[in-house]
Known about the structure:
The protein is built from 15 helices and 11 strands. By secondary structure, it is an alpha/beta fold. Helix 2 packs across helix 3.
Amino acid sequence: xxxxxxxxxxxxxxxxxxxxxxxxxxxxxxxxxxxxxxxxxxxxxxxxxxxxxxxxxxxxxxxxxxxxxxxxxxxxxxxxxxxxxxxxxxxxxxxxxxxxxxxxxxxxxxxxxxxxxxxxxxxxxxxxxxxxxxxxxxxxxxxxxxxxxxxxxxxxxxxxxxxxxxxxxxxxxxxxxxxxxxxxxxxxxxxxxxxxxxxxxxxxxxxxxxxxxxxxxxxxxxxxxxxxxxxxxxxxxxxxxxxxxxxxxxxxxxxxxxxxxxxxxxxxxxxxxxxxxxxxxxxxxxxxxxxxxxxxxxxxxxxxxxxxxxxxxxxxxxxxxxxxxxxxxxxxxxxxxxxxxxxxxxxxxxxxxxxx
Length: 356
């Protein structure tokens, strides 16, 4: 088994899942300071905001941290005449928070080149990517600067492509995981492999460390991941419910009240499949039958979601969570880290009971 801690310069082989839109400096720093790898999702961040975020992270912790970006898949749409029609389809939800359908912006997302330029300046310990294999030039530049590169795979074929592309470790993400399915070789619907099946097959197929993600909520999931051959774990929902995260009370309440079979994969909020709660916004958008392509849908719903978040209106937010949400029982990041560490082989005698 590979030594993930030595590779990433951390004390414990525990990675915080990068939350696109829900990351916080406090949570990222808490996980890093606690010996894991804190991650910060930069979805939608331009260069200036990336630089400011990295500076805030360095003020909060001297420990290694990871910055995460979404790679373009080539099917992203740009603002055009279709925008107004997409916006009108969401008019009722805009009205719910008291705003008019917004006009098209100059761009829905900053370019990945702008993001990478800022990341090189920020010099995090780790760059992690989703939705593809990073360009060879980016991997080479990262390595030249001493930055490790993590790629995200939802199938064995994706893991092999990432390993061939030179990444340092692979996050094998099972279908149980919260948020967006980061599939890139085939559609997300054709790439729904559970973690127990995915991890050992990826371990057998590649010669880099494999980090298990999806459905790991406590020490038992950690122990299972290592038994499957993983070199580390990535955990999202159990950290998302903590007070250090950027989730609001409505989101935390949804995590604590949603059963394992209560989440759905939906394109409603972003135009790409993601796992979360089928709340009112999801149900109404899906019922309309009109979902704009990515990233137009994500930009548009973001206009009412941000206001809903400020007001604690859970029925109008993206309530991302994984299938192990019922295991998210801790209030602080340090408590989650302690629970997860108890499942690492060699951590000492383990009491399999979990605090309620």
